[in-house]
Structures
1.
Amino acid sequence: MMKPSEVADFERRLNGFIRAKPIWVARVPARLDVMGGIADYSGANVCQATLGAGVLAAVQASRDRLVRIRTERAGGEGLPVETEFSLEEVEDACADYASVRARFAAHSLASWAAYAGGSLVALLREEGIRLPTGFHLRLLATAPMNAGIASSAAVEIGTLCALNAWLGLGLGADRIAQLGQIAENRVVGAPCGIMDQMAIASGRRGKLLHVVCRPGSVEGRVDVPRGTGFVGINSMVRHSVAAAPYGDVRIGAFMGRRILNGLRKQKGLPPLSYLTELTGNELAAAERHLPGRMTGADFLARHRTHEDTATVIRPGTVYRVRGPVRHAVLENERVLRFMEALRSARNGDEAGCAAAGREMVAAHESYRDECRLSVPEVDALVEAVRRIGPRKGLYGAKITGGGAGGTVAVFGRREALTQHIPGIAAEHARRMGAAPDVFWGTSPGAFEFGARRYAPRAGGWTWQPA
């Protein structure tokens, strides 16, 4: 459910809508990448949590043929930002993702709207829909951007869920997640996997979502051991999956798959669709054929293509290859061990919780050493958790999502989290000169929450499930 303060803040803002028409509202959470991270685009198992922070998305049909998008921060922080465009522009964009991507990129003040506008274009293009009229889309965020908690995916899924309810499309969680990924890959230009969109659409309050990203299916949910929980601490280093470090690691992983498939072809073996079809032992037998580093030009001369439609190899760039491949394959196995440890610890067993925490720390070390996607500020947070350790109730911590900054996930006993996280955050604030966001709690996924339909009434609005 929405927090009472969140509901009240939002309903006050409904007064800016047209009184005569109903409003459809979706509420989606940010996510905490507990395990799996950047192995998602290599087909890994991943394990994700929903956070208490999130995004409210409201849609109302307008009286004209304009689409107006407005974003605001909850609590009145910062100024609202708006952009608008005509339905004709939207329909023209549906013919070519590149043109709508260029439109948003050309206007820096409207570039944030690519997540929402791109989701609209993906919905219309992929589902063959024509809008009957323009509409107002209002986004109210309690999750900060660029913090590594998938706030961009929350905007995408929130937009799609609100439009899904307004238009009565009946699209399911998997399809909504796919459309969100298309928007991020083809309009925003961020080469993400589907992990974030799946977690936000299909997550459940108080549980971890187990997704297999081949290409994306929910395998089940994992109970959080009794008496324990997960908390996120923002490193205050801004993160973006559209930035070069994340994309370069992805390119390196796809280069590695292409090289391994060449070897498999020589041996008469079927090609790998995903790196994570390999076991760790199988990779160990073949990884001597993978270069540690390779220029884009050298790779293209030998192999022509890395077969990834979401990224483009730059000839002059030197890419790490062996490390990203090792991370993907071994992270997939770490996720499976992590979930098994949690299941063994469902009643709060210390040994099982400690084993799960060790897998988180190993995942962080792989981000840092194999992919070079950690930063000192993040390492300091992970080390602070390790210093306190399992004996005092903090089992493990790791970098999340695309890395290169963003949020650190921490696993521990609830009382230990309450006792120690404020001190860790205060120590980090002294280093950074500003207090970090701490993400407590959990909330329903988009489809668990559903959607609301607000109808006008005298003096305000009344709502019912959409």
Note: The chain has three domains: 4-34+51-223+444-465, 229-240+329-439, 244-325.
2.
Amino acid sequence: MTLEFEKLTADLEKMAQTTARRLSQRSERVAEALDTLHTYRTNWTAVSNALTTAKEKSDEKYYRSARPFSENEPLDSHIPAPPPPPQATIIAADGSQIMPDRHAAHLYYLINVGGIIYHHGSGRTPETFSQPDIFYPDNDETIDNFNDTPGAVSIERDLKEIQTLARKTAANRHNAQPLLAILDQRLLYWPIGSAGIAVNSAVSDWSRDMSGIRDAGALLCGYIDRPGTSSVMMLLRSIVGLSDAQFNWKELGQRKATQGVTDADVFSQILGPGERSAVFANISDANDVFMAQDAANEVCFFYLNPGMSGQNIARVDIPRWVAEDEVSVTAVHSLLIDQCRIMGNYPYVIARADEMAVVGRQDASELNFMIDIIMERHGISNDITSKQGSKDLARGARTRHEGF
């Protein structure tokens, strides 16, 4: 053992005291936000004025907010899930990877996309699928251009997830309707850590596959468990700013503007088990780019309490072409809750997609062994770097973590 735990006791006591104080302060701020939400629940004039003023006075580099998608749903709506349709087809996809290691014997990375096709209401056995792809430099002249940074690999995995989902959706477009395609991440995709990756190209590819899912006659959603966004809070803060002469509009979009309160903190006090919030549209530069490529792909969202009990809150992203049809929103809502009831508080299809996609430590070890064997057949040595060898020797069987 190298970590001397007893030396952390005093700091952990301070950590607990600080956390208790922060939680108390956050409860007060959540109560203030709820008061604003209830007071202006259908005051669409105030909402419109707040959004207009925020756009004019905020710092566009930071400003992110939400606007009600429709005046048919009050800001503090808590809509129960209706029974799901008698039959439906649900397809979920997820991805995993083995990151490249320049200290290993051979340079490569692997992306595995897995998923499930669930035949709701039919009694048919779900169909699972997975597709691994390995990438490596194909000649010495291009090895320096082999984009193996973690950011680039993660972006490529994301694009393969939605590409696979689009293909599976098209292939199943004649199955029982409604047809729902689900991603285990946000729909408003914007690459992070994109060294060497053309951001506009990645977003364009993502948007193209969103459109492809729509063209297949399917519904689409992105499921985000425990979201940390505060776009509805930004709207509420903007409303407060209309009557506060000291309000700092330039802070909108920054964490200090909401004092650490997230949308999930607020909606956890409103939504009962199975209930969803009103639908909101995302206000951001990224969403403007999405709409410029395909107006129907404007990303909207609602919050959801997926559990049979408790206040765990998820965010569900949906494109405009789903949001503008009440029947479609209802289908997404009811099918997600039905899936959550299988496992308690999380969609079954997403859990199975993750199971099919995940590449574990044992998988990686066996793949490296397989590579070594095949390389040896071709007379290629399997030497790791001295740095990696010394780490393996020093750690023995110990590792920093148990999986990928």
Note: Residues 179 and 218 are 5 Å apart (CA to CA).
3.
Amino acid sequence: MPDPAPTAASTAAPALLALNRASLMRGGKTVLADLTLAIHEGEHTAILGPNGSGKSSLMRLVTRQDYPVAHRDGPGPMQILGQDRWDVTELRTQLGVISADLHQAFLQAGGGGARTGREVVLSGFFASQGIFPHQQVTPSMRERAGHALALVEATHLVAKRLEEMSTGEARRILIARALVAEPRALLLDEPTTGLDLVARQHFLEMLRVLARQGRTLILVTHHIEEILPEIQRVILLREGRIFADGPKPEVLTNRTLSELYGTTIHLHPHQGYFTALPGEA
């Protein structure tokens, strides 16, 4: 169900995402507690934390699958692109989502796995899982879909069925699907789940290209080694709260990560990436 009509945006350039003491309840329990942060366009950001820290719950807020607890007074708990109310379909053209869950949703939808790469990409214009009879695909849409496929080096997958693709091929198709609507940012929620070592590295390198081209990336992960060199801000979550937030060199430290995970962590930098080893020097 779409949100009510949007409110007026601020005259200043709004943040892509702004949380103001945002909390989320589920099953009578608080899963996110008083989160306050702002992520702006061009600010490549990683959101990191242990399993159960609230990363997926935060993404469900952003994609409007869940809603934060309303404040009794003052500003609302969350704004996206300066608005606290959105038509969900329109929002999905502004923030492109790529996740393992979206991949599975396509495969599990009726006939979703039988859709070709071209059909999956074109569905990005309608925020749907496929193309349906009432949806009109224009020549301009087909041209933009072709450009997005070329951008992620997936033109050879246009006629291949999604269920026949490798996981790496399917993720390329989902990125092209997100790009066709020319979104303001890409939200990547554990996007490398299911990828083997080589496919993951190819995927990360493709994200680096998009970041350098100016596409804002918000990466949600529990793998420190997936934080791209282009990402300069890191937000750490623990038990539904912000544990640390700031420039990457200040947040990704042995001390901070050891406190976050409750065990000794040693970081090892390599060509702009980091690996983290527990209990080793």
Note: The first helix runs from residue 55 to 62.
4.
Amino acid sequence: MLRKPFSSRVEQLRKLLKQQGLDALLVTNGLNVTYLTGFQGDSSNLLVAKNKLTLVSDTRFETQIRDECPGLDCEIRDAQTTTLALTCKLVQAARVASLGIEADNLTKASYDELAAQLPAGLLVDSRGLIEQLRAVKDREEQEKIRRSIRVNERAFEVLRARLVPSASECQLAFDLEHQMRQFGASQAAFKPIIASGPRSALPHAIPSRHVVGESPFLLVDWGSLVEGYASDLTRVLILGKAPAKYRKIYEVVREAQERAIAMIRPGVTLKEVDRAARGLIEAAGFGKYFGHGLGHGIGLQVHELPFLSPIRDGHLQPGMVVTVEPGIYLPDFGGVRIEDNVLVTPEGHELLSTLPRDYEAMQVQIN
């Protein structure tokens, strides 16, 4: 028997499978395997049937599975077979009539191999079932995200305190990731985005050798991975006397974010939250310079359900954790993005990140 919360997650999934009319689900997405079992290895499949749960792995992970997933039924392959071939044998032995697959994760080659070894019509596209469950975080997940955010914020404060004009974007990205690890992250949740001056107009700028002291503003977007869970924040540091135009777009973005955060509560649509920020940015004349969605869920992945966007359907639910990150990006001038992490609570919302956002607080004197 799996320990909680993993056993509870499996039972929730089985209810979804019953609603879908499926006898079983083949889980091939490694993060979904981790979500359901706690196993953090790779190259393994999980077969979720009505009354049976089996992890298919290989000899490299035997000890790890025993330590991470006590009580989990396992089938361990040797070098004479493949994980997929052993999986097919288990599916056939289970005599399932309909097998859901994660079609957005399974390669065509793997699908073809499954289809060749299993009865025709057995495989059913069942993408997104586990992702639906992952969108709502239980208390344990929420606490891990909180710890990830704290690590993120401490690393940023060190970066800010040590900032010197001669530092390059690349150097700062390296130092920031080092600080995340120093404070307890297993790794960065994604490659830090450090962009100064006009390069801050690139939403996903790759850190360059550009010296940050040559520009009056610096965009920092960074995330930590702590106990498998991500955080994702963005701040802009004002390093000198920035043009009045820059402060103007900063204040528009800040107000847009505040309006969107104020909208967050159970039952509100994803589109409504996006619209709260996007409408203000459009009214200020910068609509065409905000081209991405307002935010996304965070958890085992940096980007996961739900997505705050003008094209996404759905409603906020208690337990969801989302980013709220409006931005304005003016080519050849510069960009502003302010990003925070927000928990949807039964009564409304909780702002999980604590770094200041007002313009004055983002001013830094560097020598």
Note: Residues 8 and 166 are 52 Å apart (CA to CA).
